[in-house]
Amino acid sequence: MTAHRAAPYWLSAPALAVYAVFLLVPLGSIALISFQHFEFYGGIQPGITFENYRQVFGDSYYWEIFGRTFAIAAIVTALCAVLGTFEALVLHRMANPWKSLFLLVVLGPLLISVVVRTLGWALLFGSTGLINKALTGLGLVNAPVQFMYTSTGVVIALTHVLVPFVVISVWASLQRMDPAVERAAVSLGAGQPTVVRRVIVPLAMPGILSGSVIVFALAASAFATPAIIGGRRLKVIATAAYDEFLNTLNWPLGASLAVLLLCANVVVLVASNRLIERRYRAVFRESVA
Amino acid sequence: MIRNGPLALAFHALFIGFIVAPLAIVCIVAFTPQGYIALPTDGVSLRWFVAILDNPRFIGAFWISLALGVVSSLIATALAVPAALAVARHRFPGRETISTLLLSPLMIPHIVLGVSFLRFFSTIGMNGTFAGLVTGHVIVILPFALRLVLAAATGMDPAVERAAVALGASRFTVFRRITLPLLLPGIVSGWLLAFITSFDELTMSVFIASPSTTTLPVRMFLHIQDTIDPLVAAVSALLIFVTLVIMLALDRLVGLERLFVGKAYGDKSGAG
């Protein structure tokens, strides 16, 4: 009996041991050096200090980086939520084989390296200038728009990289929807826009929200896309930490940036998840009552 | 069944164009006969694909990524299967904590994992080694494998195993003949998702790879930072093509929906 009761612990022990040594210890060590002093010729010094955090919070340069990171993440999230929801709805209303085909086209890029997808945008924006040729050809703009090394370019590329997460999340919640609800609304005289606004979007809301939360978290901590499209001048938190670690070699300062990013990420994820769960539960209880 | 109106279909066409355009341009540029990137080009050439074969840095990086993906996804799956069985089949104190902990890497930005591993591995003298890369990748991809195995284990009917025991099968026989075959689809798709995630990983690897253990995404990233040329486009086009082939094979084998839902669920659990 005791052997049986101990079984789950033995089964999960190997994974837990690996995590304890190779996840918790490294995270702890990075948190520790974020509180240590860095000497340009002496490296990391022992002793506890808050100077790295003071430096980050006291410098408008870092405020700008934090502001830019979260502004980009917020805009990307809004774009992904709107575009992804509509696309999921369109896919939901398609019939096979088109439905499976386009689902594959939309979600397939998730399996292709972010480097490859971002390279595509770098080619469209920069080297070939195809986007600008199209824009000027259509008479939409007079002078070429600068996409490379701008926030606009990063937002467009990140939206492309992350929008599949909203599509799949909304699509999954639409799959659970009873198709009769939609038909009932139509038979009661609701027009298409009303059905979407009053019936489908509210029912898909948990999917929209949880997809958006994923997108925000991934956009705020994105590295490859801002590094390639934004370049060295347009820094976000992740690329600034990269520079501190691999170029300036000021690890304590880079560590404090990483710790702040991790904290912001965890707070956003946990808080929004609580909120979604509470909202969702309230809706559920209402419908039961 | 309500059909899409013309407006919805127009939106759909634009959306698909948006999704496909960057991938299409990579493939088009890869076939340029010129020595630089320019559009339109005159003619089609395979010279840049041939050039990859003469570039040992990309070839070497490909083999490292492949070996890394295979080794780390096997280790991750081997750790995930017993843990998933523990969480799915037992009720015990600390169950919630254990499953939250095992899924927690999904909540941690890869940049944070990268710098943590860089610090940790350089302290213990493991930085830049293949073993270091494997360790980092196991941590990152384990949650993906765990999610899919967990789903398979939760969906299993315990009555089947009880029936086997009642018919006189030993515990090992039950595991080998009943449990494992029933879990197999979950294990295989979990392993595949773990492999693909490892093969594509850039942000963490960029910190812990050394010149002799550079993975393919890291090699491509460093190359792009330096210069964007048809060579890196050709490598990317090959990757797109290979991913496409694997995707079609997977669709036949396990059904892609399972894999994608695993990916979304994996990341969704990161939100919880």
Write up what this structure looks like.
- The complex is a heterodimer of chains A (289) and B (272).
- Chain A has 289 residues and is mainly α.
- Chain A has 12 helices and 2 strands; from the N terminus they run H-E-E-H-H-H-H-H-H-H-H-H-H-H.
- In chain A, a hairpin with a 3-residue loop joins strand 1 and strand 2.
- In chain A, helix 9 (192-220) runs antiparallel to helix 12.
- Chain B has a single domain, classed as MetI-like (MetI-like fold, Orthogonal Bundle), CATH 1.10.3720.
- Helix content of chain B is 76%, strand content 0%.
- Chain B has helices at residues 6-30, 47-53, 56-89, 95-103, 110-123, 130-154, 158-166, 171-200, 205-208, 216-226, 230-253, 256-270.
- The two termini of chain B are 34 Å apart.
- Chains A and B meet through helix 1, helix 3, helix 4, helix 5 and helix 7 of A and helix 1, helix 3, helix 4, helix 5 and helix 6 of B.
* Alpha-beta content class of chain B: mainly alpha
Q: How would you classify the quaternary structure?
A: heterodimer
What distance separates the N and C termini of chain A?
44 Å
Provide the succession of SSEs of chain A. HEEHHHHHHHHHHH
Distance between the termini of chain B: 34 Å
Number of distinct beta strands of chain A? 2
Widest sheet: strand ordering of chain A: 1-2
* CATH A-level architecture of the domain at 69-234 in chain A: Orthogonal Bundle
Largest beta-sheet characterization of chain B? none
CATH architecture of chain B: Orthogonal Bundle
Which two chains have the most extensive interface, and how many residues on each? A-B, 97 and 95 residues
Structural class of chain A: mainly alpha
Which spans of chain A have pLDDT < 50 for at least 5 consecutive residues?
none
Helix content of chain A: over 70%
Short description:
The complex is a heterodimer of chains A (289) and B (272). Chain A is built from 12 helices and 2 strands; from the N terminus they run αββααααααααααα. By secondary structure, chain A is an all-alpha fold.
